[in-house]
Amino acid sequence: MSLAVIVLTFNEERHIARALESVAGIASEIFIVDSFSTDRTVELATSHGATVVEHAFINYAKQFQWALDNLPITAPWIMRLDADEIIEPDLAERIRTELPALPGDVAGIVLKRKTIFQGKWIRHGGRYPMLLLRIWRRGQGRIESRWMDEHMVVRGGRSVVLDGGFADDNRNDLTFFINKHNKYATREAIDIINQYRDFLPRDGDHAAQEKSSLQADFKRFVKEKIYNRTPYLISASGYFLYRVVFRLGFLDGKTGLLYHALQGFWYRLLVGAKVEELEEALAGLDDPAAIRAEIRRRTGLSIDD
Fold first, then answer.
1. Which domain does 14 fall in, by range?
2. Residue 168, Cβ neighbours under 10 Å: how many?
3. What is the reported pTM?
4. Does residue 45 sit in the same domain as residue 165?
């Protein structure tokens, strides 16, 4: 195997050892780009054989692209892995045996991610499988420059799908979940406003030769062309009903319904409310620099960087 794994971290001592152990048998290089953690993340990563580099965090896309541009990667294949994700043994075995045998026209590999919430696999509501491009040939992949919902894209070849266990299993509590999604909502609101105001360079309309997961691209098309143009009280309520009723989210039981209510309704409602609040604050501003300054003042995010 010759596969480099990149993980971005900040205070991930609860997850990092588990993530690194899950790729120990398939990774020839493991790089941690840490945002100056104050817990044992760096210590644990180092003890598991990872190369740790510290770099100030602005957003996920900028941090990951910095890693691609600056890390001393030598492996011909690269994997993106989040600290709270796990490559399960069956998928690790498929990567180990099939990756070296892939033909030269394959540039990317799409994995089927499942979501684990409070220890339960969320199987319904359109949450499985989440098809994500997570492995690509070195030099043929990049991450989109967006504040939220950034995808990996590849050029110069096609992508294939590998079956096998790939899980997003965050072990933090509900307070962490809510705080994290509150931050996500602010970033997504910025992307939505930028869709109409163009105050930042906007990435997402891939060049003809660049490809991501077809599922991810389709979901973005629906979100930007239909969902974001619908009043958020209607769109958030409709999306929740779609997940719970039409995509059978009710079959996920009590824990699943809580997840769908938080991630599929409360979060979508929060994004819409933040877009509305920011738009009111930006009323009368047309200059991109003035818009960026006002958003930075209100959110504390370094959107000019």
1. 3-169
2. 17
3. 0.93
4. yes
Residue with tokens 């644990």: 44
CA geometry: angle at 134 spanning 191 and 140, to 5°?
Answer: 90
Other C-beta atoms closer than 10 Å to the C-beta of 248 total 14
- Nearest by Cα to 185 from 37, 299, 65: 299
Angstrom CA distances, 252 to 62, 121, 125, 244, 258, stand at 35, 8, 8, 9, 9
Which residues pair with residue 120 across a beta bridge? 117
Q: For residues 218 and 214, what is the distance between their CA atoms, to the nearest angstrom?
A: 6
- Among residues 139, 169, 199, the one where a domain terminates is 169
Q: Which of 63-67, 207-211, 217-221, 244-248 has the lowest mean pLDDT?
A: 207-211
Output the average pLDDT for the chain: 94
| 304 assigned to some structural domain | no
**Is residue 236 a contact partner of residue 261, using CB atoms and an 8 Å limit?**
no
Question: In the predicted model, is pLDDT for residue 108 greater than 80?
Answer: yes
- Residue written as tokens 């009723």? 245
Per-residue confidence (pLDDT) for residue 201, from 0 to 100: 83
Burial of 104 (0-12, 13-18, 19+ CB in 10 A): exposed
Contact 197, 302 (CB under 8 A): no
pLDDT tens digits, one per residue of 244-291: 999 999 999 999 999 999 999 999 999 999 999 999 999 999 999 999
Q: What is the DSSP letter of 75?
A: S
CA angle 65, 80, 269 (to 5 degrees): 85
| pLDDT at residue number 207 | 52
Domain count, the chain: 2
Note whether 9 and 41 are within 8 A (CB).
Answer: yes
Q: Give residue 209's pLDDT.
A: 61
Q: Is residue 52 part of a domain?
A: yes
292, 282 contact by CB (below 8 A): no
Same domain for 99 and 185? no
> Is the model's pLDDT at 102 over the cut of 80?
yes
Decide if 63 contacts 8 (C-beta within 8 A).
yes
